[in-house]
Amino acid sequence: MNKVIAGYGEFMVKHTVSNCANRDEITSSLKDNLKRFPQIVDTYGGTEGNVLINLSSLNVITRYASSFKESGKCSQNALNEFNRFGVDTSFISFNNHHLGEYYFLDNKDLKRNEKTKFYREGSSINHWDLKDFDFDAFFKDVYIFHLSGISLSLDKGKEGNAWKNAFSFVKEAKKRGILVSFDFNYRPSMWEDKIKKNCKSSLSDIKEKAKDGFKNVIEDVLKYVDIFLLNSLDLNTFLDYKPFIDDYSSTTLLNKKQLSDIQKWFFEKYENSKMLVIRNREKPSNEFNWFKSYILTKNKIVTSTHRILFPVIESIGGGDAFDAGILYGLLKNGFNNLSKTLHFANDLFVLKHQVKGDYFNANGDNLNSLLKTLKYHRDNTNILLTVDKIDQEFKTMKNDLSYFANVTITNKVVDSLKGYDILIGKRLSEKQLETNDRLKAIFAYKTGVDDFPLEMMDKQNISLFNSHIDASIIAKYAFALATTLSCRIAEFDKKMRKGIWYDYSRPYWKSIEDMRIGLLGFGNIGRKINDLLVRNNIETYTIKRHDDIKMYEKINVTYKNKEILSLKDLINASDMIIVSLPKTKETDNMFNEHTFSLMKGKYLVNVGRGNCIDEKALYDALKNNILYGAAIDTWKHKAKENGVYPCSDTIPLWQLDNIIMSPHQAMKIDIGHKRYVLDSTENVISHLLTGYERDKVNLKKGY
Fold it and tell me: Which string of b and e fits 492-525 if b means at least 16 CB within 10 Å?
């Protein structure tokens, strides 16, 4: 007998709108939206439907119960989605009410969290009459019936037809001895919007009333549920588990005692249930998330072997893919080998976030390809992580990467690279590279790439990736140096310590807001510096070296109707030059005696590499008041111990008042090491999963 997985729920059309100022604009006049926004793109999805489509991609026989509008383009397209994947749609009912809709704002410049607007009132599923529905035919050969808390929250809750229908499906499933799986899927907006319409309350009261409303609609259903799918806060909020579980803010797994306590409490409260599945996702950034999961039965506790770090290309549908993985495992293995079931569900959760849309597509080919890629790297990709000291950050990095590939960590000098596909480290010698037999990529957990044999790597076709996580931090430091320099704060501080209140030869300081700033170097750091300056209404310039117009859209690249194509042009256009250049042959001594002769009365800030400045020429320019002031964070020679000046005794820059000297501190924030390691981890994982090449170094240019 074939085993079927069935589900009931609302399937919706998602209208993705680009170039829209706010969510109210797209819903103020629903009838003429298509005329006003011809760039609307429609896609389809709904939590139970997503689960079934994902299962169909895995060749599972699936069946769906819902209600669509009898005619219309959206309804037909939604039906076609299920038919395309082979989901049995013969139990979908049709009436004259509209399909559920929601509008999604795809606008990266939109500065508000709420990007969706739902239009569910009066949708077809809320008006479905089950009077003649054939439950016997629908539940024939069904092993698991799946439902979510969203379906119980539609319309008017317990007073609404949708809730009554959903509850009817649950009771009919249990009457036939069919397993019921239930994903809580609490959506605050669905309940908060209802409460806002009916009463005027404070935001905190609305949130509490919303939670109470959800608890009310699920309490009757939970008595029939065999497989609970939820997150740890649901235990506290909706099941009244008293010990607070702060699992969202932690990147570690719940410990054995916590899980044991939850297990004992849960199966005493829901003694007829068979499984509790807990999943937690944390979002440290929009681009990357952390994930943890657990399966508890009366006799077993299974946990994720890793805190999984993964890239996010699409945030929708991850939970539905996870649910599909759990149900697939139960269908294939029953309640045996739960570790394998959880592992597979985790994989589907991670991989779904690499696919656009609400579910896996391309009739299974897309999913199978992703699964093969993941398996290939686990079986064949070897990573060598070389560190100076094995600290907690690197242990975490090894753990995160071990979910995707085979990782070896060492703090010893490596004699051979044989057998490794990826190297992660801060440096590499030509001698070490001579031992390479399969290395294809190197990831540096720093920005500078001076310590890598770039030419030799280029000949061996080895890609190099560095980290630019510090770009925004360095930009802020550069902005602070520029402001402090123009205000002469450091100079005033020195003089006050000597009792000097007034310097009549130089009594004033100049506001940076009145300056034109030239940016020499317009990579990650330069663009971040520009953002800060433009935000403060400061006019900025840079040398136009690329044809990419977007790169310069917030930069004034003209001076007296001429494009700025040279350093001389940039100096002429600017009152201050901020440097963020890499170390290359072309940048060696770029600021020399001749360059400084063009900078009469101007300022220089350097947060790039120290090689670009002739320090003797800098000293002469400052001493002779050619250059009005300088703030320098990087030097040609970096001291390994205290008691050493940044340059020789013949260049006593430290004796001058019009220079701020900083010991290469721009990127040294207290969590800088942690940021570098995490950024590199994310880059490696993206490379393994999607082939994405972020922060790839041009080996010929050296940056």
Answer: eeeeeeeeeeeeeeeeeebebeebebbbbbbebb
Rg from Cα positions in the chain = 31
At 157, the pLDDT band (50, 70, 90 cuts) reads confident
- HEC per residue, 9-51: CCCEEEEEEECCCCHHHHHCCHHHHHHHCCCCEEEEECHHHHH
Task: Band the pLDDT of 31: cuts 50, 70, 90.
Answer: very low
CA 215 – CA 554 distance, rounded (Å): 50
> Chain centroid to CA 529: how far?
23
Q: Which is nearest to 350 in space by CA: 370, 330, 379?
A: 370
Token pair 């111990």 is at which residue? Answer: 641
CA pair distance 56, 59, nearest whole angstrom: 5
Helix, strand, or coil (residue 68): strand
pLDDT-derived band at 24 (thresholds 50, 70, 90) equals low
Q: Which of 276, 269, 270 is nearest to 302 (CA)?
A: 276
One-letter amino acid for residue 346 of the chain: N
Amino acid at 169: F
Rounded CA separation 606/651 (Å): 18
Lowest mean pLDDT across 24-28, 343-347, 442-446, 687-691:
24-28
C-alpha dihedral (296, 299, 304, 307), degrees to nearest 10: 70
* Residue 56 exposed, middle or buried by CB count within 10 Å (0-12, 13-18, 19+): buried
What average pLDDT score do residues 34-50 get? Answer: 75
Nearest to 676 by CA among 488, 499, 443: 443
Give pLDDT, residue 295. 98
Name residues whose C-beta falls within 8 Å of residue 227's C-beta, 6 or more positions apart in sequence: 144, 179, 180, 181, 182, 273, 274, 275, 277, 326, 327, 330
- The reported pTM is 0.83
Whether residue 67 contacts residue 61, with contact meaning beta carbons closer than 8 Å, is answered with no
- Give the residue carrying structure tokens 């930069």: 555
Q: Which of 703, 157, 699 is nearest to 458 (CA)?
A: 699
Packing angle, helices 365-380 and 47-57, rounded to 10: 70
H, E, C per residue of 559-594: ECCEECCCHHHHHHHCCEEEECCCCCHHHCCCECHH
- Cβ atoms of 446 and 466 closer than 8 Å: yes
Q: For the chain, how many residues are written?
A: 703
pLDDT of residue 563: 66
